Aldehyde dehydrogenase family 3 member B1 (Caerostris darwini), 249 residues
Amino acid sequence: MCTKEVEEKLIPAMKKTLLEYFGEDPKNSPDFGRILNNRHFKRLLSLTKKGTIVIGGDHEEETNYIAPTVITNVKPTDPIMQEEIFGPLFPVITVDGPDDAIDIINSKDKPLTLNVYSKKNSVVKKFLDNTSSGSVCINDSIVNLSIDALPFGGVGKSGIGAYHGRYSFDTFSHKKAVLVRNYAMLGEKLGEARYPPYSPSKEKYLRRLLKKRPNIIPQHMDYVAVFVGGFLAAVILKVILHFAGVKYF
């Protein structure tokens, strides 16, 4: 999706790039593949019936060849926008701006990956804040899949869970909660309010007990504890060495 102004620059740039990649005739390029089988060849060909083909469009059924094809004047309701393409077809939808594009994205199932191309941080942030997708790749595509430190997975119909490194284990693991009741007298006394007969005082006590409390432990407290512990250890060691008459520097 892009504005009409961007489309007028995009199409010539794509023509130039495809020429650099595959030459005048992609069919004879050793770097351009073929569709897996005839069924998918026909499926892809049927997706080119709506819109205007501005680049490519050539095909050969005998070899399941479809040239790199760019299609403009595509509508969000066209067949090519209703399924994953998995082929050399590039539909272009013209939008008025980022808000229009976001509305179209949010009107459909959540994508596996959202690719946003913009030099404006405000535009990128708008897409990040107002859309939901498995992942987002800014000013590039696919490379996010190659980075094993990033989780890769979908949302809703585009997939559940994520993989790569630790994320793969988390996806196929279940965090099982275990609570062991303590039958100590104090615990039993505090828990009496759970049982009938109920009273306003019991209700008040339970509400106070179940009320969510703010986290009173400061952030990064573990680092502070390590620092304080190390400092105290150094002081104690210094005192011991002093009384032991050991010289230190």
Notes: Residues 119 and 139 are 8 Å apart (CA to CA). The beta strands are 52-55, 59-60, 65-66, 69-72, 89-91, 113-116, 135-138.
